[in-house]
Specification:
Strand content: under 5%
Shape: globular
Radius of gyration: 23 Å
Mean pLDDT: 77
Order of helices and strands: HHHHHHHHHH
Number of strands: 0
Helix content: 40-55%
Length: about 230
Amino acid sequence: MFSRRFGATAVLLTAASVPWLSGCGESVQIGEPLTAQLAGDDLDARMEFWHAMTDRPVASNDEAFHALLLFFDGQDTAAAYEDRVATLKERGMLAADFNESAAAAVKRGTLATAVMAGLEIQGGVVYQTLALVAGPSPRYAAKELQYMGLYPAGSDQQVFTGADLIDIIARAEDYQRRVNPELAEQVAQIQYESAHQAQASRLAMMGPALPPAGPAPADQPATEGGR
C-alpha cells in the first residue's frame, strides 16, 4: 500500500496500466532527471516525485536510486547522485565498478541486483554460486525476481518507464511486508516522521504566517448615540 510510504494509491493504479518498455539502457539518455528538482525530503517533494514519475517515458539511474533509498531507508539524505551511488555500493546493492551516469536509463538488471540485496533475497544455487565467484549477476538477479513474481518477463538489459519503476517498488514493498512486517512498519514510520520534519523545517524557513486581516474600516464613522 502507498498510504504511508508513498502517499498516493493512485500512483500504483497508474503503474499497473503502463506497458513495459524494452531497449538498451546503456544507449538511452533521458536528459535532466527529476531528482534535479524533486529530491527534497519533505512531503510535498516526495509526492511530486512519485506523481511525476508516472509520466516519465524512461526512468534514469538517479531517479531509480532515489526511489530505492526512499523505499529501503524511509528517506534519501544524499546531496547528489554520486552520494546515492556510494551509499548503494557500500551496501552491496550496486556493483563496485558501476560507473553509469545519472541521466542514463536504469536497466532491469541493475535495479534487480539492488532489490535482491536490499530485500536480502539469497537466490537459487546458480545465483549464489555466481555471486561468490564474480559478484551478483544482474542477469540472474532479474531472473530470480521474475521467478518470485517481483518482475515481469524480460531481459536484464531492458529499461523502465517511470510507472514501471513504481510498480517494482510496490511489488518489493508487498514482499517486504510479507516476510518482514516489523521492518516494513519501521521504515514506514521513519519516512512519515522524516517527511513531516522536513515539511516543518521548510515552513519555519518561510517565516511566521501573517496575522489575519482585521475588519475593513467603515465608510462613515458612527455618530454619537448611533445616529
